[in-house]
Amino acid sequence: MDVDERTLPAEQTAKGAGKTFKLGKRDSESVSFVVKAYGKIRGRICLDADGDGKCGEGEGILTGLLRIDERMTAPENDGTFAFDNVVPAHYEVKLDKDYLRKGLELVSPDVVPVDVLERGTATPEFVLREIKKDIKFDEI
Fold first, then answer.
1. pLDDT at 116 over 80
2. Are 97 and 15 in contact (CB under 8 A)?
3. Helix, strand, or coil here: 2?
4. CB distance 65 to 88 below 8 Å
5. Does 25 fall in a domain?
6. Which helix (H) or strand (E) holds 116?
7. 18 contacts 4 by C-beta, under 8 angstroms
8. What is the CATH classification number for the domain harbouring 62?
9. Which of 33-37, 56-60, 94-98 has maximum average pLDDT?
């Protein structure tokens, strides 16, 4: 027996609520299902222009690819990203370093753990900085 999720309001889920059982002609079974409201993950990728190690005003940047489980998303022009309709649970949001713009490196970890609650919003941030290279000139 499963809950038909198509009959639930758009903001609710019953993932993993199924149960299998056998009934004879005179048998009965009571089944309870847990229906949960979805949560969200709304985060940001930023280029730390002022060197404080945090995302500040106007420091958002369009680079990278983000993942939770099998889902992926890319940031908007201002560095914000979102995963909507997330089943409440613990997740690890990963910034895939292979998709970072050349010349950038992570200041923060590339994996940020978050707990998504019912109707809640988790807010991970990923902080980047420009790689500075010293240029050496040889005397002629």
1. yes
2. no
3. coil
4. no
5. no
6. strand 111-116
7. no
8. 2.60.40.10
9. 94-98
